Amino acid sequence: MRTSRSLRALAVAAAAALALTACGSDYPLGEEQREAAENSTSTLSGIISGSGSTAQGPAMDAWIGGFRVLHPKVQVQYSPDGSGAGRNALLAGAVQFAGSDAYLQDEELGEAREVCGPDGALDIPAYISPIAVAFNLPGIESLNMDADTIARIFRGDIEFWNDPAIAAQNPGVKLPETRVTPVSRADDSGTTENFTEYLHEAAPEAWPNDPSGSWPGGLGGENAQGSAGVISTVTRTEGSVAYSDDSVVDDSLGTVNLKVGEQYVPISAEAASIAVEQATRVPGRSDHDIALHLDRTTTAPGAYPLVLISYQIFCSGYEDADTVELVKTFGQYVISPEGQEASAEAAKSAPIPQGLAEDAKAAIESITTLP
């Protein structure tokens, strides 16, 4: 079971710390925000809080900054505690929205009805980003790999970088006889769930484990907290390799080109967007719940199927009308062209496809005040 009642109590305690972030300057964004506040015609005011995905962190910073320029009297607080923690906090009623790199599962949908009213919660795709397989091998900027090889690396079956399975896909590359150190996420993570789903579907024999937000026990290597934590570990450990949202990977690390069909596709926002265009709606959901199933085995030219769709999870209803207005206005900004451009600049994300953005807009507009 991915969530539990005991975790709910922890989520409440963690989310309570969000209130501390409201302290500080009236204009934390500086002169631009001060001028916007003085000239703004927006009457919207109040505070909403969210928690969740660390992958969304850089994009969330950009969204909060852009939104506060438009609505200077509104404070949006976000704590990047991990996708699992964010969902727990929302289902505990501790925050008004969650950021999650995995959509709500059936059990969580049932729990959401206790907090959000009879129509439960809504998964709204807001952030699309490729997951990088990043490694620390000085002098090597990229390597070609198929899903089977990646799975065997993270299971510990491939122990050295000059293994024949890697060498065969990278002719002409001088691979060192350096020990491979896989690094995984220590926290419950939507990035982990997306990564293990890719491995399970694209290389089921090498990765028989079911997809999960928690890293399988018993495997070797190291682990670290959050996207930034795993990349920090890789940066200081030669021979290490990790999976992470691409937004936190810089040029000091190499990245893997995925084998898709007969081609090796480099990581990019454009390639991630092509993969998302192949996604289908998860069946059995409400009309406004936009949970998506990605085709991890696609052979579409140029697609990079190791991608995450990160969601903003909102209640379908809130008891307070002011909260409804704040949530809807912020949600619409996030999926707007301006919001998507802000996240692309800050986090290398791919824009939401137009049709998906229209569905998301209608879903957010459906949020209502509970009787």
UniProtKB/TrEMBL annotation:
Region feature (Disordered): 32-52
Record's keyword terms, sorted: Phosphate transport, Signal, Transport
Signal peptide boundaries: 1-24
Xref: CDD domains: PBP2_PstS
Domain PBP: start-end pairs: 40-338
Bias (Low complexity): 40-52
Superkingdom classification of source: Bacteria
PANTHER family: PHOSPHATE-BINDING PROTEIN PSTS
Family, as annotated: Belongs to the PstS family.
Protein name from the UniProt record: Phosphate-binding protein
Provenance organism: Arthrobacter gandavensis
